[in-house]
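ping. complex inputs:
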Amino acid sequence: MSALELSRVSKVYGSGASEVQALRGVDLSVEPGELVAVMGPSGSGKSTMLTIAGSLEEPTSGEVSVGGVVLSRLSRSEQAALRRRAIGYVFQDFNLLAGLTAAENVCLPLELDGRSARSARAAGLAALGRLGLAERADRFPDELSGGERQRVAIARAVVGERHLLLADEPSGALDSVNSEGVMRLIRASCQGGVAGVVVTHDAQLASWADRVVFLRDGLIVDQTARPDGPESLLEADPAR
Amino acid sequence: MSVRHALLALLSEGPKYGLRLREEFEQRTGEVWPLNVGQVYTTLQRLERDGLVESQGDDEAGPQKSYRITGTGAGELRDWLRTPPDLRSPPRDELVIKVLVAVRVPGVDVHEVIQTHRRHLVELMQEWTRIKRVTGPEDLSLPLVVDAELFRLDSVIRWLDAAEGRLRRSAIDATAPDRVAQHGGGTHAGTPEPTRQEQVRR
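pong. complex structure:
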C-alpha cells in the first residue's frame, strides 16, 4: 500500500476569465521509505500539490489517499486527526511558534492529539535528541540559529508515528552545508520507513531524493529513472 | 586536473616513492581521478628534467626510486595554487549549442529538448549525491570533489531553467498583439491560453 497516492488530481482557482488551473490531473504514488522530490519553476503547481497531498487544501477533482485512507471520505475532524497523527510538514520559513520553546513546539501536535503533557514531552525530547538538539530543547526560536530552527521544524514533523513527511523548500535560506544537513535528516527519516515528498526548485536538494518528478503547468511531465548503484560514476571513465 | 602540480603538492610533505604517490593522488582526489602508474613516472621524469624534483637512487624511474621536491618546485607549486584557471573565454559548450539549434529546427520542441537534458543532469547529480551520502565524516576529499561536480551540474541546470524562462517569455511577447486584437474584436476566448499559467498561484 502506498504511503501517498494522488489520482487524477486537479485544482482550479477562481472562475470565468480569472480561472487558473493549478493542477491538471496529477498522478503520483509514494511508497513507504521512499523520498520523492518535485521540481518545477514558480507557478508550476508544486506547492499546491503538496498542500493537497497534506489535506491542507481540497482538490477540485481527483482523489488523495494517505496510507490507504481516501481523504474525501473523512469528515473534517477526521482529516484534522490524520494530519496531526500521520503527516508532518516542513515549511520554508520554519513556522515555529515564537512563544513556545523548541521542545514545546515539537510536542504541540501530540498534545493537540490528546497525548498527556508528560508523554508528549518525552516524545518531543527524543525527537530533538535524534536531531542533535537535546541541549537546546528549552530555548525559544529566536535564541536558535537558522539551521537549529529548521532542525526543530523537522523534529516537529517526524515526532510520534508519522508516516508521511511533506516539505516545501525545506532548506529555506540556509547555506549549502546546513541545507545538506536538512536533507540528511529527511533521508534518515525515510530510512526509518517514512515516505517523504520534498518540493523544491533547487536541483542540489532534489538530488537527495530516490526519484525526482518534474512539474510544468500543473502536469507531471517527466521523472528520473531508477538509480544505478553509487559505484557507477567512479567506474564510468578512467580518463577522468 | 594538473597531475604535475598534484604530484608536487604530495612531495611538498616529504620524499615519496612513485607507487605511493599514485596511491595518495587517488586517495586525495576522492578516487574520482584514477591515475595509471605510467603517467606518474612520465610526469616525475619531466619534473626532474625541469629541476622541480630530485630523485634518490640510481634506477630508471620505477617503484624503488624516491623523489623529493626542490626549492624551484616549491615555488612553482605556490605560484600555481594562486594562478586563476582560464575562465575568461567561454568554453564551446555543446549543450548551449544544442539548445540554440533546437530553437531553430522546425518540428522540434525546444522545451522537450531542455527537459531531456535537465532530467539527465538531475540523474547525474543524484548519483554524485549518493556517493556523498555513504561517505563517512572522516573523509574530506571525496565530499569536496563531489560538491565541485554538484555545483557545476547545478549551474548547467540553472542555465537550462533560465533559458526556458526566457523562451517562454519571448513566446508570450510574440503572441501578445494577437491577444489584444482578439479581445478588442469582442471574440470570446473559449479555452484558457497557455500563458495563463504564468499567473498560477503557488
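Chain B has seven helices and three strands.
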